[in-house]
Amino acid sequence: MAVTVESLPASTRSVTGKPGDDHALASVFKAYTISATFWLVFGTAVGLLLAFKFGAPDFWAEKYLTFGRLRPIHTNSVFYGWASLALVGCAYYVTVRSCGTRLYSVMLAKVGLWLFNIACAAGTIALDLGYNWGDLEYREWPWPIRLVFFVALAITAWNLLATIARRESKDIYLSNWYIVGGVLWTLVICLVAILPWYQKGLGQVAISGYFMHNAVGMWFTPLALGLFYYAIPKVLNRPIYSYALGVLAFWTNLLFYPMLGGHHFLFSPLPWWIQTTAIIASVGMLVPVFGGGANYLLTMRGRYHGRIESYPLAFLFVGVLCYIFGSAQGTVEALRDMQAVWHFTDFTVGHSHFTMYGFVTFAAWGGIYALLPLATGKRPGQFGMALHFWLATTGVAIYVISLSIGGTMQGLDWIHAKPFIQSVVDMKPYYLWRGVGGILMFLSHLVFVWNVWRMTAGKSGDAPSPVMEPEEAAV
Amino acid sequence: MKKAMWTIFGGALLLYIVIVMVIAVGPAIDLAQTPPGPGVVPLTPLQEEGRQVFASNGCDYCHTLQVRPLPEDVPFGRPSAPGDFAYATPEMLGSERTGPDLTNVGNRRGEIWQYMHLYDPRAVSPDSIMPNFKFLFREVKAVPEGETAVSIPAAFAPKNGDKVIATQKAKALVAFLMSLKQAPIPGYKMNGGMGGPATAAAPAASAPAAPAGGYAYDAAKGKALFDSTCAACHQASGEGVPGAFPPLKGNAAVDNADPTLHLHTILHGAHGVTIGGVAYAGVMPEFGSQLSDDDIANIANYERSSWGNHAKPVTPSEVAKIRAAGK
Ligand code: HEM
User: Fold this and answer.
1) pLDDT digits (tens, 9 = 90+) for B193-231
2) Residue B61 and residue A62: Cβ atoms within 8 Å?
3) Which residues in chain A are contacts of B95 at CB distance < 8 A?
4) Domain boundaries along the sequence of chain A
5) pLDDT tens-digit map of A221-270
6) CATH class assigned to A20-172
7) What is the pLDDT of residue A442?
8) C-alpha angle A452/A456/A461, rounded to 5°?
9) Among A94, A327, A150, which Cα is nearest to A221's?
10) CA angle B222, B224, B229 (to 5 degrees)
11) β partners of residue B139
């Protein structure tokens, strides 16, 4: 199967050539991005409040604002409201363009968006009212609400598959493997998490371990990687370094990722073989991570100077780096000796933000800045993108570094058998720094709102085209 | 053309389903049938209600309910066994310890302490960053018939002199917290993992070598153990909490050449004793089943030599003697 870059259409216009189709696609992409942006701002406002509460535990300690109710609201809104919607919006654009066809159904895309939003809103309200049965991370929403999300996802799968089925080209571009794979796998994940029969006692623990990591590894990761495979070559105006490497990463990702969830329960009473399998799979993940990561970096080779002028590329670049290093960090964390130090500490929270923020969120931003202007014909301001980039990058660096150091101290305090409260006291300065990083991150999201507005409803800004000039043929 | 599409997506989906069956659903079906361990009993309806209050207010995001076979988990109890979770649905093993593990907290803390701590964690743990759960309490002018006011140190009580009483939710929650007591499994060691409870005894070996014929008290260890096991009630200052937990500073049982009452209280707990003319509302839990003779001697000696106390030190063999004498 000789697949070349030719399967990545250079044109930003639909092959059907009908302006109505372009307009419809742009409207879908826009609608998803705007919803996602709303949930980003809402979810991280809650995150910032949580970070503040570590320094002021009595601040807004009322029933509906208590830490334990807001925390799942934060995680679920950024997961399902922000990251999911942002990536699905990009996925629609990528699939349609890379298949050189038009969207199967605009109506289905919009119905899906409504259902996604209804699920997020209902889930938020339910959690705030205390409808949280077991603090089962990332699946705290009552199951009927998760069912709504499932239906929205099924509609998305249908719409994407039907779009791909009507493609003009013979081959299916790699991005679509990841995107459709991600959507199909996630249907399975949602179902496994909802069905009740085996979710009793320790059986449910096995499902929790599975769910926690499959939600990130088989949903956000493939969608973000699929987006990389389209947006990076697009922005650079050159083919992906190695298609074969991308295919290898796809299958190894599928093989190893689903098996590593047990690493959330190392040393727990879960069967030892599940834990050991999880550790081996965590090490195996280095193959797709380094393979895929190298592929992106090699695609960017020689064009690093361009990163400075092109903020879409800068976002994608940080996303790729955090994908590589955040995942490698996860592998190290999964080793039993390291778990003995870091498990249950704030190091883990640092890791979550390194990956879900540094990798997934930056990937979504890179994708939006690279592709939304192509869809709508409107660009953000260069200054707006620069401000967003530097605030977010500095913020997340402070966040992750402070919790990584603090979490290590916390773990060492425990190992040295200090009274527990010592670890709480020792964390206080690091919680403060996390808050400082959080403020910068949150400010960057407000700037992002401004940029999204300019790319959609507002007046187009002064940023150059996201697509860079092609290189000299000689290079 | 269609074929390529179905090969890739169908193959990827099928492979995934197979992996999920093997790694998650299959084991879950099997594990869901784990029988309860010896002494593991279902919760009462009130405790069950409390478990729900725990979940709906997200206590689990800061507290785990699982003990690992690692030395650092020794303060929280023996390693969790599969049979411990037979009745624990939804599971709440948790993934973060912003606060301590609660698996065995019913053995460490009493009801009065729990109410006080929930109302304002800083009333008993000045450095705590746990949020207060005042919304689980009511502040009233006069305590209604059949209710008891929660004792709160004056500095933390309502400024207008109102009394604090627990709501049904708080009572259920405390009933659940008090139910968190591990059923003992003698000599239990899990998974052959690193460390394990066997290491718990190790510090004894690393204690300073006893001088010829004598016993040397490990002051650092005594302080650390006191801070983690006793200070929640008696406070790091040894001054206790007025009305709820007696001071150990200048305490007649502690600052006494005869250690019998002191050691007996630690081993077997106490309630209803009038101390310095005051009857205390709190309950002193028993620590005999949680601490070794050596640990108890270290704690007792720390208490006997701190905050101006000057009592004769005790030895682990004296602890053993009083332990042997029984309650
Ligand atoms: C302004 C930006 C943000 C701030 C200040 C923030 C803050 C926080 C805080 C305080 C927690 C609770 C940690 C704890 O319980 O100890 C948390 C948890 C979490 N947040 Fe964020 N967050 C932000 C953005 C995001 C974004 C954009 C994502 C994902 C796309 C995200 C994903 C998560 C996850 C997955 C957890 C759970 C961590 C774990 O259990 O390991 N956060 N965040």
Assistant:
1) 333 333 333 333 333 444 445 678 888 889 989 988 898
2) no
3) 137, 212, 264, 344, 348
4) 20-172, 186-300, 337-475
5) 999 999 999 999 999 998 999 999 999 999 999 999 998 888 888 888 88
6) mainly alpha
7) 98
8) 70
9) A327
10) 95
11) B164
**Cα–ligand 1 centroid distance for A384 (angstroms):** 24
Paired sense of beta strands B274-275 and B163-166, if any: unpaired
CA distance A5 to B244: 76
Task: Give residue B186's pLDDT.
Answer: 66
* Parent domain of B296: 217-325
Q: Same domain, yes or no, for B221 and B295? A: yes
- Is the pLDDT confidence value at A284 over 80? yes
Q: Above 0.85 for ipTM, yes or no?
A: yes
* Residue list, ligand 1 pocket, CB within 6 Å: A 44, 47-48, 50-51, 71, 74-75, 78, 82-83, 346, 348-349, 352-353, 356-357, 360-361, 438, 441-442; B 61, 95-96, 98
Residue B134 lies in a domain: yes
CA of A204 to nearest chain B CA: how many angstroms apart? Answer: 6
- Taking an 8 Å cut-off on Cβ atoms, the answer to whether A424 and B98 are in contact is yes
pTM: 0.90
Query: Does residue B24 lie in a domain region?
Result: no
The answer on B146 and B245 residing in a single domain is: no
Asked if the Cβ–Cβ distance from A134 to B96 is below 8 Å, we say: no
Helix (H), strand (E), coil (C) string for B269-308: CECCCEECCEECCCCECCCCCCCCHHHHHHHHHHHHCCCC
Cβ-proximal residues to B138 (8 Å cutoff; 6+ apart), any chain? B164, B165, B166, B167
Q: Look at A127-131, A427-431, B151-155, B190-194 and tell me which has the smallest mean pLDDT.
A: B190-194
For A132, the closest of B27, B58, B224 (CB atoms) is B58
Does a structural domain hold residue B48? no
Interface touch A201/B4, C-beta < 8 Å: no
pLDDT > 70 in chain B, percent: 91
Would B177 be classed as within a structural domain? no
If one counts the domains in chain B, the total is 2
